[in-house]
Amino acid sequence: MKTIEFEIDEKKVRAREGMTILEAAKQSGVNIPTLCYHENLDHLGCCRICSVYIEKGKRGSIVTACSYPVEEGLKVTTRSQKIDRLRKTIIELAIVGSGPNIKADLYRLSKEYNADLNRFSSIGEETKYNCILCGLCTIKCIEATGGAIGFVGRGVDKKIVSFPETSQTCITCNYCNNVCPTGRISLKGADPPFPTVNDFLSGRS
Amino acid sequence: MMSREITGPNMLEELRKEIQEESVSQKVTISVCSSTGCVALGSQSLLKMLKEQLSNQGLEEIVEIKETGCLGFCEKGPRLTVYPGGISYFQVSPEDIDEIVTRSLEHGQPLERLLLRDPETGKTAERLEDIPFYKYQRRLLLSDNERVDPKKIEDYISIGGYSALSRVLFHMKPEQVIQEVKKSGLRGRGGSGFPTGRKWEATRDAPGDPKYVIVNCDEGDPGSFMDRSLMEGNPHKVLEGMMIGAYAIGASKGYIYIREEYPIAFANVKTAIAQAKEYGLIGSNVMGSGFSFDVKVHSGAGAFVSGESSALVEAIEGRVGEPRPKYIHISERGIDGKPTCLNNVKTWANVPIIILNSAEWYKSVGTESSSGTNIFSLVGNVNNTGLVEVPMGITLRDMVYKIGGGVRGGKRFKAVQIGGPSGGFIPEQFLDLKVDFDSLSEAGSMMGSGGMVVMNEDACMVDAAKYFVDFLLEESCGKCIPCREGLKVLSATLGRICEGMGKHSDLEIIRDVTEAMETTSLCSLGKTAINPVLTSMNYFKDEWEAHIEEKVCPAKHCRALIEYSIDEKSCKACLQCTMNCSTAAISGEKRKPQRIDQSKCIKCGTCYDLCPSNAVVKISRGAAKQIGLVD
Lengths: 205, 631
Hints:
Chain A has 205 residues and is α+β, with helices and mostly antiparallel strands. Chain A has helices spanning 21-27, 81-98, 104-112, 136-145, 164-167, 175-179, 197-201, and strands spanning 3-8, 11-16, 51-56, 59-64, 75-77, 149-152, 159-162, 185-186, 189-190. Helices cover 28% and strands 19% of the residues of chain A. In chain A, a hairpin with a 2-residue loop joins strand 3 and strand 4. Chain B folds into 5 domains: 23-128, 3-Layer(aba) Sandwich (Glutaredoxin); 153-362, Rossmann fold (3-Layer(aba) Sandwich); 373-456, Roll (Ubiquitin-like (UB roll)), CATH 3.10.20.600; 461-550, Up-down Bundle (de novo design (two linked rop proteins)), CATH 1.20.1440.230; 559-626, 2-Layer Sandwich (Alpha-Beta Plaits), CATH 3.30.70. In chain B, strand 11 (373-380) and strand 12 (386-391) form a beta hairpin. The longest helix of chain B has 18 residues, at 481-498.
């Protein structure tokens, strides 16, 4: 496999062709924050917190490190005033849907990036699920049980629900607990619990 | 007619001649528009009446009825055209049919009252080109709609259909086709304006087999119906273009993605494919050329975001239509991970025109960087609304004033919103802007799919921005945080400003959120959703400041910032308002000026719309307080 040479934060790094910026960064000890990323899963690319600035020749743009493949001569900047501001805004936006009662990775990042957890507190639905809809738990669940939980709805109505037909198959494997970046899911299960798909469809969620 | 499989280019020409000779024997042809607009206005009952009349009078052999596509002037439908002569009648009702049939058979004078009128001179026009709405158009794509019954492939063949495909298959190498399209300067009509030839080349060069081509007919912008009219009225042209592209790219399979809301387009394309298969124009060994191609029609499921290329591919593969988080274009890895070329309906339909008329000729239409024509749906507060096809580079002023006939009701022009919810508002000072890909993006808007909504002085630009944000909020797939939550925040913030609760810090919120959405959203839906907000903010600063600082809506549109009142001097006491007020907020004695009880008024505006003497007025809330109208 070809080796690619490029720069992360003005440091020369090497990576295998086909790697993403995030994988290459991890390998060279550079930390890029992630929420919806899991090394064993296909990248979902939905939290956007791993956004970094790249320069290719004269052209620069902002991309997500988890999905952008490394290229020869690429210059990657993982922290800057603008990147930090974008990450702060993304965290504050994530709180609109999840509510400020977050734990785990999202909480740690909110401190690191000085996010104002109450900036948009008046906005969003009444029920806060402590969830940013990254979907990691659903993918892990499909792997373990065939899918006791999954997504329903679109856009602002999107939610993670449990399916009555398959929820008995939950084998408390704790896969979902291990991957949850907001701390909604603990050893005791999800708090608040997942509504069932029937509740969602009848509008009771 | 017995179907025969065409096994060579000469057979196609023979068939064409045969169909043309056959149609000469018919004395009179009456074509009735059967596109969505005219169907909604009653063209089906015209057809029924027409068939009855002809059968009663035994004229079925002499008069042929054709159900054709859209001519664009939908607000004047239903439309009916009589040949020979090609005289088009508009706003026809079933009662007119008898007279139309008689006059047509006698070749008498056209029916004056059903002809279009030039609004300026008041003269009737026999030819469409005689009225301004059509005079300034250049209809390369739409002009065939009036001549073709989309359910009869023979109609399309008789006007030269599939001759471009025949030429390509038997006289051009795939590379030559790509060169020709590149030379023509054709750019993607779906909105981004990517050079079509380059896209084809990238798909051709990408390793992988089979390769796919896709027609994107997931048109969902508010007020847009260009792709629908083309798909409903002339599906074979799109098919032909798609097959030329497939040959050039080396694709053997195609998909036509049509949004669920377009049943007529769906049915017509299905029929078109079945008929083309019968003639051996689709399938294995097309026309005996050795080129094989199969195509499937895929119905959408009501999601706007599925128009995004990777989301559309996901949908075709049977998953939820959500964009992929990948930086690899579908030209490399699309359907089933194979190279896939996706183009808009209009892009494909342009291809046969380029092949038949040459790239040089095509390039002579339009501007240097944007060649050809584009179809816009001109809607909103203009006198003439409908589909218009114009050469690229026409000015907005010509679109609005020459073709559109100016702003409705003599009001002042305020802005034109171009490119759907991802486009921006363009203010009066840019009216001389050329309508092409680059000029529009420089002004902060975009060509988009070609929606064009004209707004007059009564529109509030803050509220208009909120309208488009709310549309996208409804349509966001919800996958990525910046788009899903950002739209929520934008909508709420704009809502606050419209209600007079806006603060200066709201502008900072909008700046931060739009920045995050533009740079970090997963797909273009989120990235471009900021355009209506930012153009409104930049070009209509005064209006934003008035809402935030003075709590005034200058257009007197935002309900929370106005009160309705009745001007005593102008009120003629007709009681129209009193009788129609849904909350009984208006009262008064007979023959005396009426009054509005502000505590009961819900500001629905019915009285304002109904008052024949313009005595109902809107007053800014601040002014209403000053004169003691409200506390």
